[in-house]
Design brief:
The chain has one domain: Phosphatidylinositol (PI) phosphodiesterase (TIM Barrel, Alpha-Beta Barrel). The protein has 11 helices and 15 strands. The chain is an alpha/beta fold. 44% of the residues are buried. The longest helix is centred in the middle third of the chain and has 10 residues.
């Protein structure tokens, strides 16, 4: 199979099966384990800093019942996740400047989009960063604001690829990568027709979350361009077979 894109083994929140998720240690371990791309989540503090964290609060990871949006960065500096600190997005970008990264903006906050793009541009991340969000309007806003880097497909765009006539889907879809689960409810997103549509439009198809090597092999053979895994070490041998 001739591929337009380089295969990406994304570490989902870093090697989150082996280290506290979304920490610099988890990202370092992931790359050592064979990942060649990273996936992370960001929230914004009360004083405007972006920190790498999935949850809106510190309850699950730092045993701290406070909302990230309501505390300052100095306060978050005192949080620890399994002995690891909570990094800022800037610290992440400084640590991994050349690594492809998917950044999921978690809060439904349009006022955060511009500052996020400013941080990415300040670190010359246009060539490496893909901006994503479960909130479609935030992704569209990033595009309207002239983000020079890439964006993930919105849920509306994924639905158009799956259900609309091809000519209509071609007009609707503007994103670079479909970062999607294998299935959404009863709808499968790994069918040959869907993958072929993405291939024809020059769109990456990167599935999450895949931790089983057999499933990984099946998806890559079908035409997936990337997989997001909690434990990249499990999938790295499979990816080497496709190099």
């Amino acid at each position: 199979m001739t591929r337009r894109f380089r295969l990406r083994l994304y570490a989902h929140r870093g090697a989150s099966a082996r280290a506290p998720e979304n920490t610099l240690a988890a990202f370092e371990i992931a790359l050592a384990d064979g990942a060649n791309a990273l996936e992370l989540d960001v929230h914004r503090t009360a004083d405007g800093h972006f920190v790498v964290a999935h949850d809106p609060d510190g309850v699950r990871m730092a045993d701290c019942n406070k909302q990230i949006a309501k505390v300052t960065l100095d306060e978050i500096r005192n949080w620890t996740a399994g002995g690891e600190g909570v990094p800022t997005l800037s610290e992440f970008l400084q640590s991994f400047p050349d690594t492809p990264v998917s950044i999921d903006l978690k809060p439904n906050d349009p006022s955060a989009v511009g500052p996020l793009l400013e941080v990415l541009s300040a670190h010359d991340a246009e060539a490496t960063a893909t901006v994503a969000s479960f909130h479609d309007h935030l992704v569209r806003q990033a595009r309207r604001m002239g983000w020079a880097g890439r964006t993930a497909l919105t849920r509306t765009e994924v639905a158009a690829l799956r259900l609309a006539p091809f000519a209509i889907a071609r007009r609707i879809v503007q994103g670079y990568a479909a970062q999607i689960p294998i299935r959404s409810g009863v709808i499968r997103l790994d069918r040959p027709a869907f993958l072929e549509r993405c291939r024809r439009l020059g769109i990456r198809v990167d599935y999450w979350v895949v931790n089983d090597p057999t499933e990984a092999r099946t998806l890559l053979e079908a035409g997936a361009t990337g997989l997001m895994s909690d434990d990249p070490a499990l999938l790295a041998p499979v990816f080497r077979d496709f190099e």
